[in-house]
Specification:
The complex is a heterodimer of chains A (348) and B (345). In chain A, α3 packs across α4 (134-144) and α5 packs parallel to α6. Chain A starts with 7 loop residues before the first strand and ends in a 24-residue tail after the last strand. Chain A has helices spanning 58-65, 88-95, 115-125, 134-144, 161-173, 191-208, 219-225, 243-248, 253-261, 303-307, and strands spanning 8-21, 27-42, 47-51, 73-78, 81-82, 98-101, 179-183, 211-216, 228-233, 236-242, 323-324. In chain A, β9 and β10 form a beta hairpin. Chain A is built from ten helices and eleven strands. In chain A, the strands form two sheets. A seven-stranded mixed beta sheet of chain A has the order 6-7-8-3-9-10-11, sandwiched between helices. Chain B folds into two domains: 9-96 and 178-264 and 276-345, P-loop containing nucleotide triphosphate hydrolases (Rossmann fold, 3-Layer(aba) Sandwich); 106-177, no CATH class. In chain B, β1 (10-21) and β2 form a beta hairpin. The chains are: A alpha/beta (348), B alpha/beta (345).
Chain lengths: 348, 345
């Protein structure tokens, strides 16, 4: 599903954080290869889900898109304009169009500012004066997110976690953005509140036509919210597809393992899904494995996997737009990995 | 949870834990009762302010005696723990009963090696030498699946990954082969694949040693995986209990039903909004009158008069199955019938 004119077009996106060390003179001794060559697009009004586990680089990707970080390689185009290394002045008009919602509702709101000031903040910084005044606009935003506009003068600590997250959403909407990067927007919330905020984000997306990059590790929530989903592992996209294709026909072993590890609140006599157990931990992004980065935990890795990094392509049997990076993609009848819980070193 | 001739291994009766604060009394746990048999796993489901963590800290006697009032009875293997001396509790903690906490990085000392921390518990309860304690620590690390345990035993917690730290904490909790293990959200902060590994580990260990486990979580999927019996807590009270199958397939309380129907699944419909539970968890300083869930309950209006806001619904338990709700049995069958298409039994 490649757009002729995508809202956001990312190619070869790379971010390496250099590690300094050495004595007596400090120099660069290595790099954390947090994000290493990502290609994806987001169309207008579309929602792209970015899933993966800790250390896969999804949060870093979110920060690169919003240019809170500058890439060390690759290209980011927003509406056809190259913003990869754009300076502050160049970015200023675009910043209002790309906004962010953060994970921690307790850390992302200034405790010393009232809610009104927080939500009006983006307008003040960008010298934007909506017709009718900023206060009226803030009250309108509070209503859109389901908060009482009368609470304009309250402070963040007077609100619950879910309400604080709504304030974060109101703030992100203040400048009428075209794209919102939501970095784990519901992970820190109680389960009974998560659904409230997810519904709010969906309503916002549908009514205001805002595109989303939805970063999360909860596969069920990502499925609910996104039309297209990319799975990341150790700085790379290992699989990307339209939602139904990814969840219905996962071809990459890691995607399979991830899906099978999600505990479901059902009690059946016969288990509906085969459980795949990955052994070991995620390797360090400072020294990622050669070739395919997933090979150290993959039950069918061969020599080829260590020498050749598999390209992200539409492998045989995939629908168009469904790309997988694996030399031996899973098929519907592939036998899943055996349980190796007692032998963690087996897949070395 | 059916008792035969023996008493259950762990028996909590009418537990009340109140904290006195500047703003008033916080009724964190307000009349909780449950039993647990050896070798079984009780899953406690609850969110912020449900009282689940306070319950477990109180069982271990880790509450602050100056500001906390504990009423009711906590009987472990025929021994009353409420009111027991600190000396008695010390002998039991880490030995007969132990706990795994949610945040391993915060719960492990950054200044001591993992081996020292695991060995410390062992030395305290067995009086063995440092050498023996180290050997035991290596044995435990092997048992929980840490690779190269003889090298890792001398490392510090920050050198371990999140999943490994959690395993190290499990090793520490199990070093004296406890008969009761309390796990307070042990996998919430972990990735889903690591969570699956840890759950497998706990299940294997329970099979091998017959440990009774109390597993606290807000994740009903995790409950479905690991629990035998389930206790749902809300606002410091039990609102529903039963076997895993009973509670997850045919919930009898609007809160349980609300949790189950608000969760997106991996294969349900996508283009319909989720069904959240409106509102937020209650304040325990000024809890709602009557049923603590009533301000958020979709069915409170179906109950005649204002029973829900005036009277606390009694928790009626038969054979371990029960719930605290003013709705009649018929009403529950009708309202909770369409949970994922499965009929309420």
């Amino acid at each position: 599903m490649s757009n002729a004119n995508p809202l956001l077009d990312v190619s070869g996106l790379t971010k390496h954080f250099s590690i300094k060390g050495g004595f007596p003179i400090r120099r660069t001794v290595g790099a954390v290869q947090a994000v290493d060559g990502l290609d994806f697009q987001v169309g207008e009004g579309e929602s792209l889900g970015l899933v993966g586990e800790s250390g896969c680089g999804k949060s870093t990707t979110g920060r690169l898109i919003t240019r809170l970080l500058e890439p060390t390689g690759g290209k980011i185009s927003y509406r056809g304009q190259d913003i990869t290394h754009a300076g502050r002045k160049q970015l200023a008009p675009i910043r209002s169009e790309i906004q962010m919602i953060f994970q921690d509702p307790y850390a992302s709101l200034n405790p010393r500012q009232t809610v009104g000031k927080i939500v009006a903040g983006p307008m003040e910084i960008n010298n934007i004066n909506p017709a009718g005044g900023r206060e009226a606009r803030v009250r309108e935003l509070l209503e859109i997110v389901g908060l009482n506009p009368e609470h304009y003068n309250r402070f963040p600590h007077e609100f619950s976690g879910g309400q604080r997250q709504r304030i974060g959403v109101a703030r992100a909407l203040a400048l009428e953005p075209k794209l919102i990067v939501a970095d784990e927007p519901v992970s820190a919330l109680d389960v009974s509140i998560q659904a409230q905020v997810v519904n709010l984000l969906q309503k916002v997306q549908k009514e205001l036509g805002i595109a989303f990059v939805f970063i999360a590790h909860d596969l069920a929530i990502v499925r609910h919210f996104s039309q297209r989903v990319a799975v990341m592992y150790l700085g790379k996209i290992v699989e990307i597809a339209d939602r139904d294709d990814l969840y219905g026909n996962p071809r990459h072993p890691y995607t399979r393992a991830l899906l099978s590890a999600v505990p479901e609140a059902t009690v059946d006599e016969t288990p509906a899904r085969e459980r795949i157990r990955l052994v070991g931990d995620v390797p360090s992004p400072i020294n990622p494995p050669t070739g395919c980065r997933f090979r150290t935990r993959c039950w069918k890795a061969t020599e080829k996997c260590a020498t050749e990094a598999p390209p992200l392509v539409q492998v045989e049997g995939n629908k168009p737009g469904h790309l997988t990076a694996c030399h031996y993609p899973e098929t519907a009848d592939t036998v899943p990995a055996p349980r190796l819980s007692k032998d963690p070193e087996a897949a070395a | 949870m059916t008792s035969t001739d023996q008493q259950p291994f762990l028996s909590i009766k009418d537990l009340k834990v109140h904290f006195s604060t500047e703003d008033g009394t916080v009724k964190a746990v307000d009349g909780l009762s449950f039993d647990l048999e050896r070798g079984k796993t009780l899953g406690i489901v609850g969110e912020s302010g449900s009282g689940k963590s306070v319950t477990n800290l109180t069982i271990l006697g880790l509450h602050n005696p100056d500001s906390t009032t504990v009423e009711g009875s906590i009987v472990l293997d025929d021994q009353e723990l409420n009111g027991a001396s600190e000396k008695t509790l010390e002998k039991l903690r880490g030995n007969k009963m132990s706990m795994i906490f949610q945040d391993a990085l915060a719960s492990l000392s950054p200044y001591h090696t993992v081996g020292i921390q695991i060995g410390e518990t062992y030395r305290k309860h067995t009086g063995c030498s440092k050498k023996e304690a180290r050997a035991r620590a290596i044995e435990m690390l092997t048992r929980v699946g840490i690779p190269q345990p003889d090298l890792r035993v001398d490392e510090y917690p920050h050198q371990f990954s999140g999943g490994m730290r959690q395993r190290a904490m499990i090793a520490m909790a199990l070093v004296c082969d406890p008969e009761l293990l309390i796990a307070d959200e042990p996998t919430t902060a972990l990735d889903v694949t690591v969570q699956a590994q840890i759950m497998d580990l706990l299940k294997d260990l329970q099979k091998e040693f017959g440990t009774a486990i109390i597993f606290i979580t807000h994740d009903l999927g995790v409950i479905a995986d690991i629990a035998d019996e389930v206790l749902v807590m809300y606002g410091g009270r039990c609102v529903e209990s039963g076997t895993k199958k009973e509670v997850l397939r045919a919930p009898q309380h609007p809160y349980t039903w609300g949790l189950l129907s608000s969760m997106p699944s991996l294969d349900g419909p996508v283009d319909v909004p989720l069904n959240p539970i409106p509102g937020s968890p209650p304040s325990l300083l000024n809890p709602p009158s009557g049923c603590r869930f009533h301000p958020r309950c979709a069915f409170a209006e179906k109950v005649e008069s204002d029973l829900c806001s005036t009277e606390r619904p009694p928790l009626e338990i038969t054979d371990g199955r029960g719930s605290a709700c003013h709705l009649t049995a018929d009403q529950r069958s009708e309202f909770f019938a369409d949970l994922a298409g499965s009929p309420a039994n």
